[in-house]
Model the fold of this input.
Amino acid sequence: MIDENNKQKGGVGDHLANERTFLAWIRTSIALMGFGFVVVKFSLFVRQLSLVVTGHNITPVKGFSGVIGVCLVAIGAVAAIIGYLRYRRVEKQLLNQAFHPESGLLLTLTLAVIGGSLLLLYYLLPNL
Done:
């Protein structure tokens, strides 16, 4: 039997959907941070490999992969924070039966991801 108090303050399904959405935010943030880590480490790997094979550094010293990787990790951390803040706000709104969607934080994260992708394009296109 459904608890009448829970039914009045947002159904169980609403709260579980909010949790699933939060977990999706966390998965996205982990993926962004992991990708940023790989970008930085791959650049270091290529630089060290060129030193071992040829005896000197054949990759350009002026590279943006470190900056891009750190930016991606930072964007991933911001995504985790946004996900948590959004989860808490929606939880309060469900309990108060006053859900109002907002897109300000989503727009910020979207612009950050687009900025990161533009940095990657700027870095990768001259190397084609």
User: Anything to note?
Assistant: The chain has one domain: 12-127. Residues 12-127 form one domain.
